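Posting this for the archive.
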Amino acid sequence: MPILGLGRLPIPTAQIPVHPDQPVRLSSHFGVPLREDTVFTNRRGIEKRGIRKRAEHALDKLQEPLRKMLEPDEAVLHIARGQMMPSGVERFFLGVHAYYLAPAMLVLTNHRLLHLFVTWDGMWKRGMRSARWGDMEEAKAKGLLSARLHIKYRDGKKEIYWRIRSDEGKKIQLLLEVLLPTAAGETSPALSMTSLCPDCRAALTPGVYECPNCRLKFKDERTALRRSLLIPGGGFFYTGHTLLGVAHCLVDLVLLFYLALSGLVAVLGIVKPGPSPGGAPPNKFAAMVVVAFLIAVLALHKWIMARISRNLIRYYIPAS
């Protein structure tokens, strides 16, 4: 729905004031324009050695994509680690493994929120997304022990970023309160978070796994589904989550082993000794029940892996 009058609102410049008692300090680190009065300070505008160290470490590893992505009069205001929060169903079945999905860095600039996919040591994985501040209808960062960034976009979509440090969340909330009112007129055609080509930065079309501009190819949903169903742990291996792939491969193999064993009992009548001397061996009916149960568990396990792999593929992972 168009928002009347938004075009008359100013777009925040790199000089937008954040801390009333701190002067704007615009500089460049590793060739990346940034605001030292916000990147290296806490929410009160006080510079901290630990904050500077974390920020410089992240900027060092992300300098390549940031130099490519930043627009004229765009500067980094803050950078923090965070991840897309999986759905409740995915968190339930993954358990602690949910913490290992799609690590990323969130980069807040005066124009937009950048979502860069990284390895666990912070190296860029050639995946990037972007949303203008004007594309957000609401955005709040909250939490005590750790923060979550809740975003509602103007097209109605919602996203939650979690695993954000509590102090980082407070800083993000401060910047949101400064940027959102000022940037309401700077919307994109998507009115939401958009995936970008890592080579040419063109906007990517949902469901089309090839860049419309430079023809870079990305991994696709059909291949992810096929590998999830046919290869133990295959969906996670395909999306680059090797540890999750190994864990789910072991689960698949254990389920397949017991399924084959129970199938031999149910179909051929092959039985093994009872659990104790003199105990009755398992019969064919009991084995058929076990087979049905194991098939259901394996199907559910495959479905969960296929669903999560599909969602990861929709973040656009380069094919090479």
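The radius of gyration is 25 Å. The CA atoms of residues 45 and 284 lie 72 Å apart.
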